[in-house]
Amino acid sequence: MSTKPKGDNRPDLESYWMPYTANRAFKKAPRIVDSAAGFNYKTQDGQTIIDAFSGMWTSGLGHCHPKIVKAVQEQVARLDYVAAFQIGHSRVFELANRLIDLAPEGFEHVFFTTSGSESADTSLKIALAWHRMRGEATRTKFIGREKGYHGTNFGGMSVGGIPANRRMFGHAMLPNVDHLPHTHDLEHNAFSKGQPEWGIHFADELERIVSLHHAENIAAVIVEPVAGSAGVIVPPVGYLERLREICTRHGILLIFDEVITAFYRIGTTFGCERFGVLPDIISTAKGITNGVIPMGAVLVNSDIYQSFMNGPEYAIEFFHGYTYSGHPVATAAALASLDVYAEEDIGNRVQAIEPVFETMLHALRDAPHVIDIRNFGLMGSIELEGRPGDPGARGMEAHVKCFEQGLMVRHGMDTLMFSPFFTFTPELFEQTFDIVRKVLNEID
Ligand SMILES: Cc1ncc(COP(=O)(O)O)c(C=O)c1O
User: Fold this and answer.
1) Mean pLDDT, all residues of the chain
2) pLDDT tens figures, 143-191
3) Which of 19, 106, 118, 151 is found 20 to 30 A from 255 (Cα to Cα)?
């Protein structure tokens, strides 16, 4: 029942249980956006907010890009929906082909989902089923990584390694999971620009885990090439290469969760290309549609796909999928986004602006509370010292104060995260970091 006073036309906030939100604090002092265009949001009260997080790592091309808006409008009027199972629509095949043309060599097939969480779970299920089909049914263990984030479904939660995401759910995790150590190390790597030089040895922990559980029991290792949600943790030089070597040596599939790093966030179509390390499965979402309509995609090599193509031809080969896999409207948004990425030369532009972002971000090194700054591509973070006994409070206050002063930045605990638009200008970076500095000066 509405608790609003009579005559108050603003929406009642109580009914909506907001995700990953401090609901009570929010509802006392809401931050409500009504529209967006380009680099900005407009709030309910008419304030303009620079979005320095481009949605939630999603919308690198800017909000309400006219070409994507038009494609969605046309598609929803032509074919709004068609069943996803045992029937198709032409544009989803076109999209799969386009993605494969853009993907690194060897990736030849795409499975569509509707979110990053679904892509993570889909990639884990593909890995399990693939081993089973090849007669290696004992390979059921997954190796994730501390501080990893692979969404909120049971598979992704279990291989994920952010403690708060797991604590509430106790022993309901998948049982057959172990974790690599994370690579975050302030003592050796604080204020590294790009990839830290120190820390390749963290990858060798995989050898220890393999010898503990035996390779014949392990299906896959899943990592984000750059850990995003934990606060932009950049892999040390040589680390991803070493993981690749160890996985190959032991017949373990390597899954890169590229929900953030795919689609130019780090300057290449897929993040693995920037690192020159090829996984066996690439899991994506977010930027595939510029965040406009939910969609995810899991890319696999031909060997994996072909292993499923046996049995009678009338039979379903993979008992998995979603009502909205390859949704026509999401497909149209994705095709339009791919067009814009190419037409606006986004890969080169991201690489060109990256040094400006790096320089301006690291210039905050002397601001109050700052204990580390990290960056790679157009992913960046400023780690603040937590208040004793109050972890996350300072980060939350900084986020709220930035918003009040016209800037959207995300925070995870006491780390502020930046995911600027691909076409941000030096002036916009300056405006962004001026607000951040002002806020850091203001808060305790
Ligand atoms: C690496 C990674 N994987 C999975 C997810 C989950 O995506 P979604 O929220 O679309 O389910 C995210 C979301 O931020 C992510 O960053």
Assistant:
1) 97
2) 999 999 999 999 999 999 999 999 999 888 999 999 999 999 999 999 9
3) 19
Q: Which atom of ligand 1 is nearest to the CA of 224?
A: 1
Q: What is the pLDDT of residue 372?
A: 98
Would you say the CB of residue 285 lies under 6 angstroms from ligand 1? yes
**The sheet that has 177-180: what strands, in order across it?**
107-113, 296-301, 281-284, 253-257, 218-223, 141-145, 177-180
Distance separating alpha carbons of residues 128 and 336, to the nearest angstrom: 34
Q: Measured from the CB, is residue 228 less than 6 Å from ligand 1?
A: yes
- Nearest-atom number in ligand 1 for the CA of 228 is 16
- Residue with token string 């709030």: 43
Kindly report the protein residue whose alpha carbon is nearest to atom 8 of ligand 1: 116
C-alpha 174 to ligand 1 mean position (Å): 18
Q: Report residue 2's pLDDT band, with 50, 70 and 90 as the boundaries.
A: low
Would you say residue 3 has pLDDT above 70? no
Average the pLDDT over 15-34 and give the result. Answer: 96
116: pLDDT strictly greater than 60: yes
227 CA distance to ligand 1 centroid (A)?
11
Q: In whole angstroms, give the CA distance from residue 123 to residue 117.
A: 10
| Ligand 1: nearest atom to the Cα of 283 | 3
Domain residue spans of the chain: 23-61+345-442, 69-343
Percent of the chain, pLDDT > 90? 97
Among 47, 39, 38, 65, CA closest to 428? 39
Ligand 1 atom index nearest CA of 151 = 6
State whether CATH 3.40.640.10 applies to domain 69-343. yes
Ligand 1 pocket, mutate which of 149, 223, 233, 298 (most atoms under 8 A from CB) = 149
Q: Which residues pair with 379 in a beta bridge?
A: 376
CATH architecture of 23-61+345-442: Alpha-Beta Complex (3.90)
Smallest Cα–Cα separation from 228: which of 279, 278, 173, 283?
Answer: 283
Tell me how far the alpha carbon of residue 135 lies from the centroid of ligand 1, in angstroms: 31
**Ligand 1 atom at shortest distance from the alpha carbon of 227:** 1
What average pLDDT score do residues 58-74 get? 98
